[in-house]
Amino acid sequence: MEENSIDLRELLTILLKNLRKIGYITAAFLVVAVLYLLITPRVYESESLLRIKQPQGLASSLLDAVPGANTAATAQLMSTYAEILKSRSVIEPVIQETEQPNDDGKYPSYDNYIKNRITTTPFKNTEILKVTVNANTPEDAQKANALVIDGFLSRLTGLTRAEQKATKEFIAARVVEAKNELNNAESALQVYKEKNKIIDPSENMKVISDRVVMVDKVKAENKVDMATAQARLSSINQQLGGAAKATADSSTIKEYNQKLAELEMTKVSYLNKYTDKHPKMQEINNEIASTRAQLQAEINKVASLQAPSDNPVHQGLIAGKFQSEAEIAVAQGKEQALANIEKENSEAIGTLPSIEQGYLRVKRDADVAQEIYIMLAKRLEEAKVAEVMVSNEVQVVDTATLPEAPVKPRKALTLALALLLGIMAGSGYVIAYEMFNRKLRTADDIQSYLGLTVLGNVPDVESMSRMNAEKRKKLSLLQKLRRLLQK
Predict the structure, then answer these.
(1) Which of 188, 307, 372, 394 could potentially form a cystine with 315 if both were Cys, beta carbons 3.0 to 4.6 Å apart?
(2) Which of 52, 72, 76, 51 is nearest to 63 (CA)?
(3) pLDDT at 155
(4) 14: Cβ–Cβ under 8 A, 6 or more apart, which residues?
(5) Long-range Cβ contact pairs of 33-39 (< 8 A, separation 24 or more)
(6) Comparing C-alpha atoms, which of 368, 338, 363 is closest to residue 352?
(7) Three-class SS of residue 333?
(8) What is the pLDDT of residue 2?
(9) What are the CA-CA distances from residue 140 to residues 99, 111, 147 (Å)?
(10) Alpha helical stretches, state H, 241-353
(11) Residue 317 in contact with residue 309, Cβ under 8 Å?
């Protein structure tokens, strides 16, 4: 089977022979590129930078306790804010203020404007969001970007105030209910005192009442601490996916947990004996603080061994897991100790006369109602302040810039591509034309393709006449005279 081969020297010869054609084709591509640059409208790009901070609330506090664990929450928040920025309520007023309607009085569609004009780009591992807006003039691009940012901030403020208003209305209604409950509880207490002629409770009743109130307060705080630790542990376990071991696998952490639980139970047992300023209470508080610091140091050490050394986020998650498990264990111990103290208080109350027992019940109801009312009143004032405050979760780092040069079309790149494509297209055309042209040009072609022997060459009379005419033009005057004499 005959093999076809390509001679590079032959290709080079073809290219050199047809340089003029290649030049024409390349010039045509450049002309088309120039026409494109002249016809295509200029596009200018204005940029602005926003900082989006995590809101300070319960959900964020649970994640902020673990270093690096709020990365996913930040990314989700930035994505949410980017969608709010591109929402119809923000963009449609910008379209009506910066764009011109067509002959039918219609403005550019919202979908096309979002797709072709606005881009939001979050910077990885930061709280920075870049907002880019395109327009046909530098001034229009800057104006549209500024309007988008202003509309976005106004929309956020409106949403925040709407939420705060709903919260305020709910708390206000609950305050009214709490006030009524407090009035009823105080009235019941007053009626009970008048009915049973209790002018001033006995010293024993005061002591027992103070114990009950203190235990109720510590019990409520412990319940919140346990719920918070359990919520944080659940969140961390979901992120780890079972990648970390439990603290029970570390004997040292287990010992610190047990010691801390014992200290907390001892502190609880002091509630019926000492006040917060008593030396015994201060001593136990110092021991608890020291043990917590030692426990945290051991948790960090074990977490660094279980997590990859180059992954601080993973280490932070594991440390948060161990810390949450320790807090749960301590809260469970305190819960048991508080149950024992409640039992002791119930027994102490049982030794009192029935009148005094009834007094303690109504007094306890009044105290609880008062605490709830005070707490709700404080929350109502906070909600009122939050309603009128502008949300500072979004900060403008850089305002809209005034672009100096268009980003589209790119002149240098367009001309370079046209030049390259022209050379490639021209070269490909002349090579293909020469390769597919079956015309026989030389004696070697006849011998190669037809297998015939060349006996002689018949000169081209027209070509020879043209060559002789050119030679005669080049003869000097002396040569011409010599030829005439020779004739």
Answers:
(1) 307
(2) 72
(3) 86
(4) 430, 431, 434
(5) 33/414, 33/415, 33/417, 33/418, 34/415, 36/409, 36/414, 37/409, 37/411, 37/414, 37/415
(6) 363
(7) helix
(8) 45
(9) 9, 19, 10
(10) 251-269, 279-306, 312-350
(11) no
Nearest residue to 182 (alpha-carbon basis) of 376, 367, 377, 381: 367
In degrees, rounded to 5, the angle at the alpha carbon of residue 127 between the alpha carbons of residues 121 and 130 is 25
Residue 303 main-chain phi, psi, to 5 deg: -65, -40
* Three-class secondary structure of residue 390 per DSSP: coil
pLDDT band of residue 348 (cuts 50, 70, 90) is: confident
**What pairing do the DSSP bridges indicate for beta strands 44-52 and 394-398?**
antiparallel
pLDDT exceeds 60 at position 234: yes
396-420: average pLDDT: 91
DSSP-assigned letter for residue 480: H
Q: Contact at 8 Å (CB) between 13 and 390? A: no
Query: So where are the chain's domains?
Result: 201-388
252/294 Cα distance (integer angstroms) = 10
Reduce the DSSP state of residue 46 to 3 states and report it. strand
User: Tokens at residue 447, please?
Assistant: 């011998």
Q: Roughly how many angstroms between the first and final C-alpha of the chain, as a whole number?
A: 61
pLDDT at 474 over 80: no
Q: What are residue 134's DSSP bridge partners?
A: 45
The residues near 186 (Cβ < 8 Å, ≥ 6 apart) are: 366, 369
pLDDT tens for each residue of 50-96: 998 765 543 344 444 444 445 666 777 788 888 889 999 999 999 99
Backbone angles phi, psi at 56, to 5 degrees: -90, 100
pLDDT category of residue 14 using cuts at 50, 70 and 90: confident
* pLDDT tens digits for range 168-220: 888 888 889 889 988 998 898 888 888 887 766 666 666 677 777 777 777 76
**Residue 341 near residue 271 (C-beta atoms within 8 A):** yes
349 φ, ψ to 5°?
-65, -35
The rounded distance, in Å, linking the Cα atoms of 207 and 209 is 5
The two tokens of residue 328 are: 């749960």
Band of the pLDDT at 278, cuts 50, 70, 90? confident
Q: Are 234 and 242 in contact (CB under 8 A)?
A: no
3-state secondary structure of 48: strand
Which distant-in-sequence residues (6+ apart) come within 8 Å of 150 by Cβ?
none
Alpha helix locations (H) across 88-137? 88-98, 110-117
Q: Quote the Cα angle for 463-469-472, to 5°.
A: 145
Amino acid at 410: R
Cα–Cα distance, 97 to 115 (Å, whole number)? 18
